[in-house]
Amino acid sequence: MKRFLVICVLAAIAAGPCLAQRTGIREEVRQDRTLPLGPDKVYDFDVPELTPAPEGYEPVYLSHYGRHGSRYAYSSRTYGFLQEALAEGAATGNLTPYGAKLKEDLEPFFEAVTNHVGELTRKGWDQLYGIGRRMVEFFPTVFPDGAWVDAGVSPSIRSVMSMNACCLAIGQSRPEVRIFEHQTWDDLRSARPNMGYKDAYAFIGAPCPTQESSASFIERTVDWKAILGRIFKDPAAALGRYKPADALDYLYMMVAGMESLDDGIVPDVSGIFTREEFATMWEADNYLRYREYYEYLAPCCSIYEDIIERADEHLSDGSRGADLRFGHDHVLLTLLMIADIEAFGHFASRPEDVAFTFQNFRSPMGGNLQFVFYGKEESSPAAGLPDVLVQVILNGEETWFSGLEPAVGPFYDWTELKAFLSGRMDLFRKP
User: Fold this and answer.
1) Neighbours of 405 (CB within 10 A)
2) Does residue 200 contact residue 193 with C-beta atoms inside 8 Å?
């Protein structure tokens, strides 16, 4: 019975008014060269200043979930499709003049990325180091001498290296802070529960509101023959063993992923897509990830359980410090959906509407969600305000919950926020 109610509630959300974060999203993506990179967008440190806390409050604790930094492509097929197709095209005379030039330009690139699939780049390491330094710079009262920083991570090497970089920055900035980094099976609960951690089974899922397959959406919205036709005389012959949707997806990810690579190995691939085509490819990739990540809503609720439990422990014993979790874009975006941050929890029922309330570029390389807890100082003048306020920060910018009003400015009452998060998780909890 409860599963039926969960499905009905989610269906009602999907069918209700679209509280769109970005009604002009398609125009935004066409005008900003970084947005159509999607989750391959690199972290932007140039963000607006944070709102100061109300008088009488200071930061006392920080809870964080962060994606790893910039990396090489996570699948060899991202590079493999074009490498294979260019080689076959050269052997069969199927390359256009642009295709022949592209093959020549990409040969040293393919050699450089071989055996580096999924690895963190130096650019990615620098991102996480910078994020760690900013935590200390922006919230120094969270990290006094003797404070504890506990850091857990997904088992992927790029995530572990990202954790190392962030914690190194904190330790170098605050040498007297005690830092414990770990990666165990139990860390899956707070870093990557969709891998199958046992607590994930306390939650149930529901069918995705949009039923069209990602491959169908890509193939009906993107002119694959026009794109591949620039490179190959016969686009269909160039596909080989790949389906059109897969070939386009790998091609898009390769081009977008160039932003994450270190200087010196990146060739000019700007002629593969027109600006309009690349924006359309973003929307297709965005839909693909929405369909995939929707399946992670139920298991990833355990991360919010962990956030609540650890925050209450710190607040009850008065200890300063931070709990840091490191993982992946699919988890970060799922956290936005679960908590209805920036209207990500308003699930579209039509594929064409997904881009209004789900934008995968909100989880760039190094992307992170931080809950900063503010406690009242002694003799605080903040009469009438809650004892604990929470500032929620996404990628360095203040963010918001579409279903919860702040207590003051962008600051939330922790008691109300905790109840709100618990209510959101109840949509997925088993009886």
Assistant:
1) 10
2) yes
Distance between CA 332 and CA 337 in Å, rounded?
9
What is the spatial distance between Cα 56 and Cα 35, in angstroms, rounded to a whole number? 39
Q: What are phi and psi of 424, to 5 degrees?
A: -65, -40
The pLDDT tens digits of the residues spanning 180-238 come to 999 999 899 999 998 876 666 667 777 899 999 999 999 999 999 999 999 999 999 99
The closest alpha carbon to 297, from 337, 255, 264, 265, belongs to: 337
Sketch the domain layout of the chain as residue ranges: 2-72+120-206+297-426, 76-117+210-291
**Sign of the torsion formed by the C-alpha atoms of 10, 13, 15 and 19:** negative
DSSP symbol at 141: G
- The dihedral sign for the CA sequence 272, 214, 190, 148: positive
Out of 91-95, 163-167, 259-263, least confident range? 259-263
SS3 assignment for 254-309? HHHHHHHCCCCCCCCCCCCCCHHHHHHHHHHHHHHHHHHHHHHCCCCHHHHHHHHH
Percent of the chain scoring above 90 in pLDDT? 86
- Long-range contacts from 405-412, C-beta under 8 angstroms, 24+ separation: 408/54, 409/51, 409/54, 410/51, 411/51, 411/53, 411/54, 411/374
Q: What letters, b where the CB count within 10 A reaches 16 and e where it falls short, cover 332-365?
A: bbbbbbbbbbbbbbbbbbebebbbbbbbbbbbbb
Angle between helical axes of 301-317 and 329-338 (0-180°, round to 10):
80
376 φ, ψ (degrees, to nearest 5)? -75, 135
**Count, residues in the chain:** 431
Would you give the DSSP letter of residue 362? G
pTM of the model as a whole: 0.93
Q: Please give the biggest Cα pair distance in the chain.
A: 80
Amino acid (one-letter) located at 177? V
The correct answer on CATH 3.40.50.1240 for the domain covering 2-72+120-206+297-426 is yes
